[in-house]
């Protein structure tokens, strides 16, 4: 298996580009079916979700709008615990069908912080699509309506996900080597 080095750490391939694209297509098919005849407003969480959001968006056939917002909770390999909005949401979500696009849900703290802010605007519906879910790590009750892959508690990079700023450019997803 080809391995990569990002900063001081080695990573092995975990999910191939093919597997990722297949799964995103399946997730998009489910959304296309569930929201048939409706208009969907997607909120993609930067930075990590930019590739997922772009590939998902290309597979959608329902009427779709998208915006990008930025929330930060991670420094290096560990969650810093604090969630800070750095690029705000300026759209009115009232009566809109909203789907959040998130690269990975780990402790769930980011979503736990963010969801009430969205509910406050009284959307018609609110769902979460997450490409990756570290299910054993999640400490909050976060309803994930569309999950790409449930993964173990190992740090991953690639396909938009970084390790201290680097590693986002890879097409595959890599896991920290033992
Ligand atoms: P949570 O708030 O659920 O603990 O963490 C969510 C955010 O932490 C994700 O959006 C992502 O930016 C970051 N994160 C969590 N696990 C990983 C990981 O294994 N690799 C990378 N690169 N980021 C992660
Ligand atoms: Mg993220």
Notable characteristics:
178 residues; alpha/beta; Rossmann fold; 6-stranded mixed β-sheet; 4-stranded antiparallel β-sheet; 3 helices; 10 strands; 21% helix; globular; binds guanosine-5'-monophosphate; binds magnesium ion
Question: How does this model look, in words?
Answer:
The chain is α/β, with parallel strands linked by helices and 178 residues long. The chain has one domain (17-153): Rossmann fold. The chain has 3 helices and 10 strands. It has helices at residues 17-34, 50-58, 109-119, and strands spanning 3-6, 9-15, 39-46, 63-75, 78-87, 97-105, 125-133, 146-150, 156-157, 173-176. A 6-stranded mixed β-sheet has the order 5-4-3-6-7-8, sandwiched between helices. A 4-stranded antiparallel β-sheet has the order 1-2-10-9. The model has no long low-confidence stretch (mean pLDDT 92). It binds guanosine-5'-monophosphate (5GP) and magnesium ion. Guanosine-5'-monophosphate (5GP) binds at residues 48, 73-74, 79, 102-110, 155-157, 161-162.
């Amino acid at each position: 298996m080809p391995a990569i080095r990002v900063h001081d750490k080695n990573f092995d391939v975990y999910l191939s580009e093919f597997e990722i694209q297949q799964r995103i297509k399946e997730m998009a098919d489910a959304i296309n079916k569930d929201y048939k005849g409706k208009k969907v407003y997607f909120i993609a969480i930067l930075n990590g979700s930019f590739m997922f959001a772009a590939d998902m968006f290309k597979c959608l056939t329902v009427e779709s709008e998208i915006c990008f917002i930025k929330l930060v909770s991670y420094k290096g390999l560990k969650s810093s615990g604090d969630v800070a909005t750095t690029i705000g949401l300026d759209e009115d979500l009232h009566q809109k069908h909203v789907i959040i696009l998130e690269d990975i849900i780990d402790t769930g703290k980011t979503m736990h912080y963010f969801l009430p802010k969205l509910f406050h605007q009284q959307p018609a519906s609110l769902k979460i699509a997450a490409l990756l879910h570290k299910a054993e790590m999640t400490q909050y009750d976060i309803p994930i309506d569309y999950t790409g892959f449930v993964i173990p508690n190992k740090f991953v990079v690639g396909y938009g996900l970084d390790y201290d700023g680097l590693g986002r450019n890879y097409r595959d997803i890599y896991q920290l080597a033992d």
